[in-house]
Amino acid sequence: MGPQQDRLAAKPYTNGTAAPAARRKENKVVRYKECQRNHAASIGGHAVDGCREFMASGAEGTAAALLCAACGCHRSFHRREVEATAECDCSSDTSSGARR
Ligand SMILES: [Zn+2]
C-alpha cells in the first residue's frame, strides 16, 4: 500500500452530483462546483466554507436536492459550470451512496 493509491472509495464526491434524469436528455451536463457563499459577509469579511463541489442532499425533485450535502448551502451558491459531454452515462443508478 503506497501513498499513490487512488482512494476513490473514500470520496463521496465522485458521483451522485447531478440528476441522472437530466443527464440523459441532452449532452449538456450542468455541474455545480466550488461553494462561493461568503460566510463572513455580515462582518465585512470574506470567508468561504471550502466546499469543492455541490452534492445534493436528497433526490432530484425534492427540496433537499437543492441543498449541498457537504456544506449545507443552497445550490445557487455554488459556481455553475456547463459541460458538454457526449458519452458519460456510466454511473446512472448509483444514487444510494450519498444519503445518511
Ligand atoms: Zn457552502
Provide an overview of this structure.
The protein is 6% helix and 15% strand. It has 100 residues and is mainly beta. The protein has a domain of 56 residues. It is extended. The model has no long low-confidence stretch (mean pLDDT 79).
Give me some keywords for this one.
single chain; 100 residues; mainly beta; 1 helix; 6% helix; binds zinc ion
Offer a concise description of the structure.
This protein has one helix spanning 20-25; strands spanning 28-35, 78-84.
Summed up, the helix count is 1
Overall pLDDT metric: 79
Largest sheet: 2 strands, antiparallel
Which strand order does the major sheet show? 1-2
Bound small molecules, by name, code or SMILES, are: zinc ion
Structural class: mainly beta
Termini Cα gap: 29 Å
Compile the SSE list and pairings.
Layout: H1 20-25, E1 28-35, E2 78-84
Antiparallel strand pairs: 1-2
The protein binds zinc ion.
